[in-house]
Amino acid sequence: xxxxxxxxxxxxxxxxxxxxxxxxxxxxxxxxxxxxxxxxxxxxxxxxxxxxxxxxxxxxxxxxxxx
Length: 67
Hints:
Elements: E1 8-11, E2 14-17, E3 42-46, E4 52-56
Antiparallel strand pairs: 1-2, 3-4
């Protein structure tokens, strides 16, 4: 998933997506387009290039295709 022209703020308290629903909510990053839910916890890690990666904590439920 790639979002173009989104804005965010990183403070001592955390990361905030700054986009507003203007003219409507399709112009912002929406949680409904992700597998995340309010209350999920993340650990900040760095990848091999030193980029920030917010890794979801806890068990990760994978979809299994059962035939």
